[in-house]
Structures are given as structure tokens and as C-alpha cells.
Design a protein that fits this description.
Two copies of one chain form a homodimer. Chain A is 45% helix and 22% strand. With 238 residues, chain A is of the alpha+beta class.
């Protein structure tokens, strides 16, 4: 498969001229990783970024004691690792692990940076991309500090709803989703059951149907950390 | 005081030619706010970013129930709000409130963006700036999900140590610092006392002296959420 054509699927590369594209990708190469294999570990030199063509990758934070928190789940067509290219002598703050067999393109930061210095338009695209990530992280910190587990699960379901419609498959294993949302797996299952028994969603194996978007939204908006437990047992069991 | 000269203190503006500087700042203006006054609220149209000349500003996340989490504390010489300028029709995801009397320069996003489209060098500076913020947020999410309160406090003290030396004043009120670190104020006080009684730090009013940096560092590196309580009572009371 052609590297240049594949990368042009991503908006970051659309601003480049054919010649700039050649320069940016001159050492780019296909990489395949098997399920559970690491592309890079937390603390590795950050010399590359990646475009995911097929498969699914999780970006994980690991504590010295071995606890894992999934920061992001990367799907085909997305890039990751690109934000580190501007920090000199940078080390990845996360690890990247394949959740299933993956095909990726590995792009050298140095080549890409060189072309970025010639293309204002590409810089602006990258600034937009990084703004969105910053915005998402602010929301993540909000969810972690000011909302509770049920809110985070409801918020995730709403995000899927707006991206993929009212009926969608959970394409990420439950344990991984729980880690992504900083919820214990058993709590995640309990919340899904409660949402279902309150007719906010319907669950059929991995398929979720959003039945009552307005009330699901009210739930995420009304909950605060302090009042969370009471409010949720009320609103979920009402 | 001169707006252009003041802004040139910040690296974001250094890449601009005098003419570009004029364009970027043509509608920029001085703003003064009193202690506790809001510069903008969560959800306001994000049309400006700010350079803080004097004072201190907190960027806060507010839950619908009124709970507050301080996301960042801005000190003189720093800018804030700039990352939102690339997202169309964007609303501030945080509120900005003065912690003491402040003098700031308010810069129009539209003017700044226009000049950014002419200056590749300025784009690269901004990309660097945003990378560092992203990196910091990743560490924040790490701290919130994989480390406990004592780790976060110790981590904050170490950051001050490396920025300002082994002896420094806590220039942020305790309640605000606690919110910044997502710790209850009483827990914050307890941790500071424990660190002090274990001779890792000395406390004299608002003045902190780092006595044992290596062990403080070991503390932040060894703690995980699950083992946190036990480990800390061990290591702090040993």
C-alpha cells in the first residue's frame, strides 16, 4: 500500500505540496504490530509519530506500581505522538500498545518538522489539531475532578451517540473502556445496568441503543462530585 | 505602560516583525481587574487571549453544583486563553478569576490569527507552547488517576524547588493550592505537616524549605493509587 496516499487521508498532510509530502515522508515506513505489542514505552525517546491505518491502539499511563490508565484510544485514520515533536529531547509521556493487530505508518519527527518550517498552512492545521487535544484534556480533567463515575460513563455514551448515531457497538473491551474512563470494571458494568434498567439505554451484547438522550444529558450535567452518590442513586433508581 | 514593549517579554511575540506586531496588537488594550473579579466565565465566547503583567489569575473549572477545581494558576509574564483561538465559535472551557488585583493586556484572537498566517516562525513558537501545555495536562491526568494526594503535594513542592530553589514562599493561598492539586484543604495541611515531621521539608509560615529532595522524589515515584494509603502512612511515619 502506498504511504503517501494513505497519509493524505489525514488533514495534517493535506496542506503539503507533492514535493513537501515527499520530503516529510522520505524515511516513513510501514510498521505492523501484533495484539498487546508495544509500539513505544513510557519514557522512550520521542523521535516518531504514527498514523494508524488498521487496528486499534491505546495510549496508556503506567504508574511505577504497574497500575494502568488509558488516556486515549486511537482508531484508524488518526495520528498520535505528534504533539511531542516540538519539545526538545522529549520522551513519550505515555506508552502505545496495540489492542488488536495493527498496521501503521511511522513518520520521522525531524523530516516532518523541516517541512513544517516551510508550510504555514500545515502549521495552522497542526495548531488546530493540538487545540482540540488541549480542549479534550481540559474536559478530561473536569470529568476526573468534578464529576463522578456515572457521569463519565454517560458522557462517553453521549459522545458516541453524537459521533456514530443512536445505535452503536462498543468496539472497545469493557475493561479498557473502564480504564479510559477511570472507573473500576465492576462499577462500569453496574452503571451500564442501571442506565439500562432506567430505560436511558438498551443493551444487547456489545450493541448500545440510546433511548433517552435528553435525560442522559441531564444526568451528566447535574452531577457534581460531592452530591454524586446521592443524586445518582436517586436519579438512576427513581 | 507600552503594550508592544510589554508583550515582547513573551516568546510568542518575539518572532513578529515590528509591522506584524502592530497588526497583531492593533486592538489590544490594558485591562485591570480587582481581586475575585472574573475576566471571563466558563462558556463565554473565546474571542481574546490575555497576557498577565501584574497580579495572579486562576483558571477554574466549575461544576453545575458550584464545585470548583483550579486548573492552572497564571503568574506575571504568562499568557492564557490562546489555545482556544483555533477552534471556531469556541467558548472558554474554564473561567478566569483574579486572585489579587491584576493588570493584563487583552489581545484579539482575530488580529493575532491574521498575523500568524504570515509568520511561520510564530506558528512554530505557538506549537512549542501548546506542546508543553499538552505535556503538562498529560502529567496532570497521570497525577489525578495514578497517584494519590500526598504524591501530588510532593510533586508540586518538587516543581517549585526546581523552578525557584530549595527555599521559597507559598505565594498561593492554601485553599487555592489544594484545589489546584485536587486535594481537600484539610488533607493538604495534614500532608504538609507529615512531610515536615519526617524532615523532608521545613515550614515557617508561608516559607517552605526543601530539606531532603531525594526522598521527596522517591515518595512521588513510588506511590500508586492502590497502594497509596498504606505506603504513605509507612513512608511518612517511618
Amino acid at each position: 500500500m502506498d504511504i503517501l496516499n494513505s497519509l493524505q487521508e489525514h488533514f495534517l498532510f493535506r496542506a503539503f505540496t507533492p514535493q513537501q509530502m515527499q520530503q516529510a515522508c522520505k524515511d516513513a515506513r510501514w510498521v505492523s504490530v501484533a495484539r498487546n505489542q508495544y509500539l513505544f514505552s513510557q519514557g522512550d525517546d520521542a523521535s516518531y509519530f504514527y498514523f494508524l491505518k488498521e487496528g486499534q491502539v491505546k495510549l496508556v499511563l503506567l504508574s511505577p506500581g504497574g497500575d494502568e490508565k488509558i488516556l486515549e484510544i486511537i482508531n484508524p485514520g488518526e495520528i498520535f505522538g505528534e504533539a511531542m515533536m516540538f519539545i526538545q529531547d522529549c520522551h513519550y509521556p505515555v506508552a502505545a500498545q496495540a489492542m488488536r493487530g495493527c498496521r501503521l505508518i511511522q513518520i520521522d519527527n525531524a523530516n516532518f518538522l523541516r517541512v513544517l518550517h516551510q508550510s504555514n498552512e500545515a502549521c495552522i492545521s497542526l495548531l488546530q489539531d493540538m487545540s482540540v487535544r488541549l480542549y479534550d484534556f481540559v474536559h478530561e480533567i473536569y470529568a476526573l475532578t468534578l464529576s463522578d463515575a456515572a457521569c463519565r460513563v454517560a458522557g462517553y455514551l453521549l459522545a458516541q451517540n453524537s459521533k456514530r448515531g443512536a445505535v452503536f457497538e462498543l468496539d472497545v473491551p469493557k475493561v479498557a473502556l473502564a480504564s479510559r474512563l477511570s472507573v473500576k470494571p465492576e462499577t462500569f458494568s453496574r452503571i451500564i445496568k442501571q442506565l439500562s434498567s432506567n430505560d436511558l439505554i438498551a443493551v444487547n451484547n456489545k450493541q448500545i441503543t440510546i433511548l433517552d438522550e435528553p435525560n442522559l444529558r441531564t444526568l451528566t450535567e447535574s452531577c457534581t462530585r460531592q452530591e454524586a452518590c446521592q443524586q445518582h442513586s436517586l436519579s438512576l433508581n427513581a
